[in-house]
Amino acid sequence: MDTRAHGSPQDGITLPLAVPANARKGHPIAIGTGGLIGVLITDRITADDLKNPAKANPQGLVAGQASVFLPGISITLRVNLPAALAQGAKVYLQPDGSYSDLNTGVNVGWKVNGLLAVRANS
Description:
The protein is 4% helix and 39% strand. By secondary structure, it is mainly beta.
């Protein structure tokens, strides 16, 4: 599958995401306003953390990010999503095969880091 970006046979995937300053490791947060929930599995990285050689920071995270577990998301896909869709926006597959935030198609997931995070079947 040439569109596959990330995947997991488990109950979800973990991705680096920008999170609010008050987000806490081990607690759920809302990703955008589309109903996507994540759980921080690392602390949020600050600019000071990155400058501190004594602090062990998770690899690849930048200031403002944490590693966030997304329960129920088992795959992300590189597909053409509208640039105007916000992080965490619901994504609908339209009858013409395009993707949008219009509730006139099938809800297939959320926009996460520019990718389509496919939701679990319900």
